[in-house]
TrEMBL record:
Homology family: In the N-terminal section; belongs to the NnrE/AIBP family.
UniProt organism field: marine metagenome
Gene Ontology MF annotations: ADP-dependent NAD(P)H-hydrate dehydratase activity; ATP binding; NAD(P)HX epimerase activity
First-tier enzyme category under EC: lyase
PROSITE patterns: YJEF_C_3, YJEF_N
Protein name per Swiss-Prot or TrEMBL: ADP-dependent NAD(P)H-hydrate dehydratase
Reported function: Bifunctional enzyme that catalyzes the epimerization of the S- and R-forms of NAD(P)HX and the dehydration of the S-form of NAD(P)HX at the expense of ADP, which is converted to AMP. This allows the repair of both epimers of NAD(P)HX, a damaged form of NAD(P)H that is a result of enzymatic or heat-dependent hydration.
Segments forming a coiled coil: none
Amino acid sequence: MTGSEERLYGQSGARQLDRVATSRYGLGSGELMGRAGAAAFRVLRRRWPEAMSIMIVCGPGNNGGDGYVIGRLAHSSGLKTIIVAVAAPATDEALQARDQAEQAGVCIEQFSGGELPDADLLIDCILGTGMKRPPAGDIATTIEALNRLDRPVMAVDMPSGLEADSGAAPGKVVHAELTVTFIGLKLGLYTGRGPDVSGKIVYEGISVPEEVHQAVLPLARLITGKSVVASLPPRRKTIHKGESGQLLIVGGDAGMSGAVRLAGEAALRSGAGLVTVATRNAHAAVINSTRPELMCHGVEDEFGIESALEGKDCVVIGPGLGTGEWGRMLLNSVINSGLTLVIDADGLNMIADSQVSVPQSILTPHPGEAARLLGCDPDEI
């Protein structure tokens, strides 16, 4: 995976990438549109080689322009091709792409409400990353009609109705089987509703220089199994657990021992050396009998947690911790330990509720926990 495939951009970042490609490398919008359309056509032929007909829905912007390019190439290859225009082209590049499709003999219809033409494969080129407000009017009606057809859908750049920044879908949204996205991966494909409606994500760099991506700050980076493995240092064949770090995992209040046990197993599988679980006395023996590779430490008071913290390099706190007095006592002790911290689950909930000041730590919230920490709605995460 290249650097450009790890960086995640929003709507503004995607536009900046286009501008940098144009201003520094002379790649005009029309050239980028042509490359994007050609790449999308190659993807659809690889994914659906038996498709004999294609229906493309085009919006007014450059995402619609991509659709006209796809339609021209599909028609030239012998596919039965119909383009449905939701609105007239609103950019010079999209208008030129439409003219070229018409000149090539592509059938172009104006959407008039109701049902869309059927085809073996449906292509969504309505909005892309250009959504500024929830879909309304003909655009919303078109999205509904597209979703009613029982055919595979390929979205171009973004499923229409999905926000590139957050993955929120404040209105109607296209449900795609595959999304092909260009130049930079979009954060919204991986957050919010993105994973539910984007299907398989295919990245096409369309031969844009890597320097373009280095010039635009991403919103986030994509963490994959391969990228994690690549970041791990090599180990000697004779290395033992005492040379691979000592980790303490704190949690597992009454009825929640499974969470801290799973965290301990995950730590061992990911390569931590000596892993100790600090949990309720009643849980320690049970976990130790089922997972003998884990060290277990029963903790009921401050003296117990201070003993467990001795000699440790890092602490994970939160899985099954609960938010009662026992959990709060453990959280305060761990925060004051001065060790490197990973805070999860109920540890985050207590921080959000009490506004506890924590040292520089790694936080691993799900959207609900992140919303509580930031004081916002989960849909904004």
